[in-house]
């Protein structure tokens, strides 16, 4: 019995010592550890994937992260300025045209440098390195047509427009930054036929050989299927660039400058083809965006 009492007492002392050490460790981590960073994202696949990549990068650098995801695109900039989030993935074209209301530019470096300077002056926020991933406007053709007629650029397309059926989305024919902007630079696009379809049906329409050409966004997941769909090069750079980049509040960046290195590593690994493939895994293959981001981050860290 005495042996049992001694054993219990010894075990209790060990437990107390372990709890004390654990408490000391937690205290030191709180005092000397890194702060929690609140990462935002917009409410669509690509932004969720990239926001998760930023989160994984910061966690790998020793930060705690609060994921404040699925914020409406119309309010996420305000969330940053109001200090409700600390950083999020944004697009250079959105910063230029939607936030700053500046005139359209098409050179990626010029757009980036313009928004970077303006954000620092007006919003005390910094654009870290921008990636090659460009989620802008584009045109997609059936790959069979691309191969048959030798169409890989919008200049090629303009020469063959009279042989092609256009799957319009209505407003693209009228919007200043749609077909009218293309025709000013490339020349008239006099289609063989033009019919309006809902945007959600365009790839089905192309697959069913009901049309040859359709408007697209350049990182849509369906574009990963290059056997069926070919994204045309905007060889005269008519449309503005929408390169992905992290935007972070200066207050957070100045206090934690190593954030830049961790997240810039993500930007360096992203280009249009890569982000399209990641989008396809979520939107076409129906994988969870967290799993897709984790697999990709593990391949680049």
UniProtKB/TrEMBL annotation:
Sorted alphabetically, the keyword list is: Signal
Q: List the signal peptide residues.
A: 1-22
- GO cellular component entries: ATP-binding cassette (ABC) transporter complex
| Limits of the ABC-type glycine betaine transport system substrate-binding domain | 36-297
**UniProt cross-references to SUPFAM superfamilies, sorted A to Z:** Periplasmic binding protein-like II (SSF53850)
Q: Which Pfam families match?
A: OpuAC (PF04069)
Q: Does the keyword Signal apply?
A: yes
UniProt GO MF annotations: transmembrane transporter activity
Q: What is this protein called?
A: Glycine/betaine ABC transporter substrate-binding protein
In which organism is this protein found? Paenibacillus borealis
